[in-house]
Design goal:
With 363 residues, the chain is mainly α. Helices cover 75% and strands 0% of the residues. The protein contains 16 helices and no strands.
């Protein structure tokens, strides 16, 4: 064989060793994304039993259309135990006005919010890891867990709140030279809080990022926008409800009990269902912290973790893991990308490791 043919064969073999596993990885995770989308679309109209939190959101949207209050005393009829802000019912009301009080009105809002989150996650991971395959991996990882995926299509405000939070950080990350990015982030932060008040933890994470990176102008603009817009929204809601907005919201969040024994149940079930994602995702976050190379997504993940720790395991449900899991999906793709690059550079010296990593990537 001529020298030219040997060189060509070496280049072809090296190219296949690098590209074929990567393509397989993209195909496997891409198929999972398609399965999730088909599953969610099928559930939009399916008349499965709803839980009280789902049906009440449609009721609140209908009350808005009838100019009836959302916040009143729990002790008198109609006993409105609404402990959440009004952003979600306001958005759902647009569909309820068109189609009537149907369950799919809320489910499709949640579903679209998740699709938009997956699109942002794809964009972030693709740019950060210099390959669209890792964007597919991150988006697929976010859609993967059945433990929380069964909440995605329900008429719950958690997915919409997480969409606003991810969008808040995404704007700052995607448009660093846009001088009003912190103002837009502040507006999205208010939208998140007025969708679900537990969003304050992730908002604090972005504030810490501005503070520790010494972006004083952005920090001031973010805080002023959030405080002014938040105060105006609060004043309007409280005035229209004759003061019941404040009392309903605070009555729920000042009487919570923390059930420590539920932490192993929630985190244990979630961890052992998807150990690779947890191990690699948390490993990347720990490595960033150890190397003092934390970025904006590290603080976003910290906010999601605090939310899951303080709220998600105190008697509530897996819906509180949305924000944390979106951050872990990004770290998971980043960790796999690092492992894959290392494995690609050592295929000749570590053949056993090559097969081990390939199995890990696909498993």
């Amino acid at each position: 064989m001529s020298e030219k043919n040997r060189n060509a064969r070496h280049v072809f073999t090296h190219y296949n060793m690098r590209s074929v596993p990567l393509c397989l990885l993209g195909v496997v995770w891409g198929i999972w994304i398609i399965i999730y989308i088909l599953y969610s679309v099928a559930l939009i109209q399916y008349p499965y039993d709803w839980e009280p939190g789902e049906g009440s959101k449609i009721l609140y949207a209908q009350r808005l259309l009838e100019n009836k209050p959302l916040y009143k005393s729990n002790n008198t009829f109609p006993m409105l135990g609404n402990c959440y802000p009004p952003m979600y019912p306001l958005i759902v009301a647009a569909l309820v006005k068109y189609a009537g009080p149907q369950m799919w009105c809320g489910r499709i809002v949640s579903f679209v919010a998740i699709l938009l989150m997956m699109a942002m996650i794809y964009r972030i991971a693709s740019r950060h890891n210099c390959s669209r395959v890792w964007g597919i991996v991150a988006a697929g990882c976010f859609a993967m867990p059945a433990f929380i995926a069964n909440w995605y299509s329900l008429a719950r405000m958690d997915s919409l709140c997480s969409f606003f939070l991810l969008g808040m950080v995404y704007v700052v990350w995607e448009f660093p030279k846009f001088k009003y990015s912190s103002v837009v982030a502040g507006i999205l932060a208010v939208c998140a809080v007025f969708t679900k008040q537990t969003a304050v933890f992730c908002i604090a994470g972005l504030g810490m990022y501005y503070l520790l990176s010494k972006q004083w102008r952005n920090l001031i603009a973010f805080c002023i926008t959030g405080l002014v817009a938040g105060w105006l929204c609060f004043a309007v809601c409280n005035s229209l409800s004759d003061g019941w907005f404040y009392r309903n919201i605070m009555s729920e969040n000042t009487h919570r009990l923390f059930f420590i024994e539920r932490y192993p149940a929630f985190f244990g079930a979630f961890f052992f269902s998807y150990p690779w994602a947890w191990i690699i995702g948390i490993g990347v976050a720990a490595w960033k912290f150890y190397r003092r190379n934390v970025d904006i997504w590290f603080f976003y993940a910290c906010g999601g973790l605090v939310n899951a720790l303080l709220i998600g395991a105190n008697g509530s449900g897996p819906n509180y893991f949305f924000t944390l899991w979106s951050a872990l999906a990004l770290f998971f793709a980043e960790g796999l990308a690092l492992l894959y690059r290392w494995y690609s550079e050592n295929t000749s010296t570590k053949p056993l490791y090559k097969y081990f990593v390939l199995y890990s990537l696909l498993a």
